[in-house]
Amino acid sequence: MRFDHFRQIVQRIRQNIPCPRCGSFFEDREIDVVAASPRSIEFFAPCDQCGAVSSISAQIEPQRRVHQSIRPVTPPQKMSPEMIHDISNTLRQFQGGDIRELFQ
User: Fold this and answer.
1) CB 13 within 8 A of CB 31
2) Which of 14, 60, 53, 6 is nearest to 33 (CA)?
3) What pTM does this model have?
4) CA 93: distance to chain centroid?
5) What is the pLDDT of residues 43-58, one digit of tens each?
């Protein structure tokens, strides 16, 4: 686990996870590391205010990149019965040859 990830996790615990019994937030000195691996870490945090002991687990998930399209995608056009009939007739009348004729 990278040290900057570790520091971010501890900071989030201090800011976002209160003691379940009294609601006070933990100080750095109260948060002890119990176990760590490349993708997870477990903490033990006794509360100075009420004495409750919390077990906190954090997991690091790799961030997935989202493909961004170069051009905007337009939703497909709804086809009316007339459009389907016209396509069917065009294909029926096609005698072979250059297929590009179908798309003109």
Assistant:
1) yes
2) 6
3) 0.52
4) 50
5) 989 998 898 999 998 8
**Spatial distance between the Cα atoms of 46 and 59, rounded to a whole number of angstroms:** 21
For the chain, strand residue ranges (E) read 32-36, 40-46, 53-59
Check if the beta carbon of residue 26 is closer than 8 Å to that of residue 19. yes
Neighbours of 60 (CB within 10 A): 16
Residues near 23 by Cβ (< 8 Å), separated by ≥ 6? none
Supply 100's token pair. Answer: 């590009």
Label residue 22 by pLDDT band (50, 70, 90).
Answer: very high
Sign (positive or negative) of CA dihedral 51, 52, 53, 54: negative
pLDDT at 70 > cutoff 80? no
Q: How confident is the model at residue 1 (pLDDT cuts 50, 70, 90)?
A: low
d(CA 102, CA 104): 6
- 57: which strand partners? 42
Q: What span, in angstroms and rounded, lies between the C-alpha atoms of 19 and 54? A: 7
